[in-house]
Amino acid sequence: LALYFHIGEREEKCIIEDIPSDTLLVGNYKVQRWDIHIHDFLESAPGLGMFVTVTSPTGEVLLSKLYGPQGTFTFTSYISGEHIICFQSNSTRFAVIAGSKLRIHLDIRVGEHFLDESAIRAKDKVNEVNIRLEHLIEQIHHVTREQDYEREREEKFRKTSEETNSNILWWAIVQTLILISVGIWQIKSLRDFFISKKLV
C-alpha cells in the first residue's frame, strides 16, 4: 500500500489496515510542508516530527512513538482485524498560525521480511541459498496466514448472511400470520355487523 494524504499541522489523521494475526507490518513515511511563498510542498519538513500511534482491534495501543520528518515504524499484530494507524505532527505553534498544510507519503508493507542484500553478499553461496530459502518460507507462511484470515472472514460473513436470511424468513411468516388473523377478524366483524343490521 503506497499513498499520500494531506493534514493540517496539528490535525490527526488515521488509516485502517485489516491484517491477520501474527503478521509483521512495516511502514515508511515522509513529511513535506507547504510553502506559501513558492505555492508548493517543500522536499521535507525539517524540525517537524510525527507521532505514530497504532491501536489493535481490541483498543490496545501497540505503538506510540515520536519520529522525525521521515521514518520507519514496525509492529506485529497478535490478533486478526482492523488496526488503526494514526499520524499527528508535534507542531508547537499556536492553532491560529499552525494552519500550514502537510503532505504525508506513506508506504505500508504487510507480512514482508526484508532481505539484507549486503549481508547476503558477505556470506558464501551455501549461506546465501539458506537465507533466501528462509525468506521464501517466511513469505509462504505469510500467504498461508492471509488465506486463513480470509477464510475466517468469509465464514463469518456467511454465518451473518444465513442468520439474516433466517430472521427475514421468520419475520415474513409472522407478518403472514398477522395478516391472516386481521383478515379473519375483519370478516367476522363484517358478518356480525350484517347480522346485527339484519342484512343477511
TrEMBL record:
Give the InterPro entries listed for this entry: Emp24-like, GOLD_dom
GO CC annotation, single: endoplasmic reticulum membrane
Whichever gene encodes this chain, its name is: Tmed11
Q: Which PANTHER family match?
A: TRANSMEMBRANE EMP24 DOMAIN-CONTAINING PROTEIN (PTHR22811)
Q: Coiled coil: which residue ranges?
A: 119-146
Could you tell me what this protein is called?
TMD11 protein
Location in the cell reads: Endoplasmic reticulum membrane; Membrane
The alphabetized UniProt keywords are: Coiled coil, Endoplasmic reticulum, Membrane, Signal, Transmembrane, Transmembrane helix
State the signal peptide span: none
Q: How does it sit in the membrane?
A: Single-pass type I membrane protein
Entry similarity comment: Belongs to the EMP24/GP25L family.
Q: Which residue ranges does UniProt annotate as crossing the membrane?
A: 168-187
Annotated ranges, domain GOLD: 12-110
What Pfam family is a match for this entry? EMP24_GP25L
